[in-house]
Amino acid sequence: VQLQASGGGLVQPGGSLRLSCAASGSIFSINIMGWYRQAPGKQRELVASITSSGITNYADSVKGRFTISRDNAKNTVHLQMNTLKPEDTGVYYCNVAGSRRYSGVFSSWGQGTQVTVSS
Question: Does residue 109 carry a pLDDT above 90?
Answer without folding.
Answer: yes
